[in-house]
Design brief:
The chain is α+β, with helices and mostly antiparallel strands. It folds into 3 domains: 6-50 and 145-237, 2-Layer Sandwich (Gyrase A, domain 2); 54-136 and 252-287, Aminomethyltransferase beta-barrel domains (Alpha-Beta Plaits); 288-362, Elongation Factor Tu (Ef-tu), domain 3. The protein is built from 8 helices and 20 strands. It has helices at 11-16, 36-45, 65-72, 120-130, 155-160, 207-218, 228-237, 273-285, and strands at 6-7, 20-24, 27-32, 48-51, 56-61, 85-91, 97-107, 110-115, 137-140, 146-151, 175-180, 183-188, 197-202, 224-225, 289-296, 307-310, 313-324, 329-337, 348-352, 355-362. The strands form 4 sheets. The chain has a 6-stranded mixed beta sheet with strand order 11-12-13-10-4-14. Strands 15-18-17-16-19-20 form a 6-stranded antiparallel barrel. It has a 5-stranded antiparallel beta sheet with strand order 6-7-8-5-9, covered by helices on one side. Helix 2 packs across helix 7 (228-237). The longest helix is centred in the last third of the chain and has 13 residues, at 273-285. It comes from Streptomyces pacificus.
């Protein structure tokens, strides 16, 4: 079996644009085209175009599709209206997070589950396994879709020039079928940048034509192609968790400060319910650690795995860190002992190669767009 990375339908196009490519979760993906900083600023102030075809689409259909998803996931999926989407998680029996997901209800008995690239097979296997007692089918649709995102304040205007779909009426976390530049697409108002934007699910054979049409329509507004590197700094500024960093199987949604996604009020049992009820109680009482933001007082950049210190003692761990193009200083997300987790807590630092660099504890997110 070949270990060569998988290529998206836009691979040749990325290379023709001079992209720096990287292996990400078994896919060859563009890391950057020009400079991460320029791409980041384009998304914050104008618009950026992303290839996200490495994400894992799984279709769930059948009379008991909703019941299956309510059992398999922590959210109330049966309560999602057709045409809407929900951020949720799939957990193990012990409450550990297997992945965070977006679930789109495409029709009464049809859902699309979008998993992270690194976890797509795990999620597919778990859903298939959990579907055993339900009248529902789980289908691997990773090869059925290419996913192109246009993100940033100019994105509604750019996309609007290429479609008759009612973008004005399309709420955040909603999706509707439409045609973009003559290409049939599921148009979703979702994203991972902290900006307004859209994700377009299309057949791979249409991906190049759609990318070119968006590039052309976006040129006057300053749209640029963007790689995974700026996607990471954008989501970090927006305080959005990344699986493998802020979310892991050793953490429950409550440990991650995302207990709101767990819906105990839904009918019937769901995988991990008992463990999550216990986790909710622990988190409510006095959680040992909390996810916080850290802003550098100096210039040195914290990285995942570095130790957070206070008074010479280890009090936490950095989960994500990077220079912030928007704020102009290094930022980190970290799990920190509750005693040091309040915004404004003094004396907190990060151990960067033996030096305790001073950091300010802040509430997440670091950045919120003006609406």
């Amino acid at each position: 079996m070949s270990n060569a990375p998988r290529l998206t339908a836009l691979d040749a196009l990325h290379r023709s644009l001079g992209a720096t490519m990287t292996d990400f979760a078994g896919w060859d993906m563009p890391l950057r085209y020009t400079s991460e900083r320029d791409e980041h600023h384009a998304v914050r102030t104008r618009a950026g175009l992303f290839d996200l075809s490495h994400m894992g689409e799984i279709t769930v259909t059948g009379p008991q599709a909703a019941a299956l998803l309510d059992y398999a996931l922590v959210g109330n999926i049966g309560g999602v209206a057709t045409g809407r989407a929900r951020y949720t998680m799939i957990c193990r029996e012990d409450g550990g997070i297997l992945d965070d997901l977006i679930v789109y209800r495409l029709a009464d008995t049809e859902y699309m589950v979008v998993a992270n690239a690194s976890n797509a097979q795990t999620v597919l296997d778990a859903l298939t396994d959990r579907a055993a007692d339900f009248d529902a089918a789980v289908r691997d649709d990773r090869d059925a879709y290419a996913l192109i995102a246009v993100q940033g304040p100019e994105s509604p205007g750019i996309l609007g020039s290429l479609t008759d779909a009612d973008l004005e009426g399309l709420k955040y976390y909603a999706g509707l079928p439409g045609t973009v530049a003559g290409v049939p697409a599921l148009i979703a108002r979702t994203g991972y940048t902290g900006e307004d934007g859209f994700e377009l699910f299309v057949e791979p054979r249409h991906a190049q034509a759609l990318w070119r049409a968006l590039t052309e329509a976006g040129a006057p507004a300053g749209l640029v192609p963007c790689g995974l590197s700026c996607r990471d700094t954008l989501r970090l500024e927006a305080g959005m968790p990344l699986y493998g960093h802020e979310l892991t199987t050793s953490l429950t949604p409550f440990d991650a400060g995302l207990g709101r996604v767990v819906k105990f009020e839904k009918e019937g049992d769901f995988v991990g319910r008992k463990a999550l009820e216990a986790a909710a109680e622990r988190a409510g009482a006095n959680p040992p650690r909390r996810l916080v933001g850290l802003v550098a007082r100096g210039r040195r950049v914290p990285r995942a795995g570095m130790t957070v210190v206070a008074g010479g003692e280890a009090v936490g761990e950095v989960t994500s860190g990077a220079p912030s193009p928007t704020l102009g200083k290094p930022l980190a997300m970290a799990y920190v002992d509750t005693a040091h987790a309040e915004p404004g807590t003094e004396g907190v630092g990060v151990d960067i190669r033996g030096t305790h660099e001073p950091y300010e504890v802040v509430a997440l997110p670091f950045y919120r767009r003006r609406k």
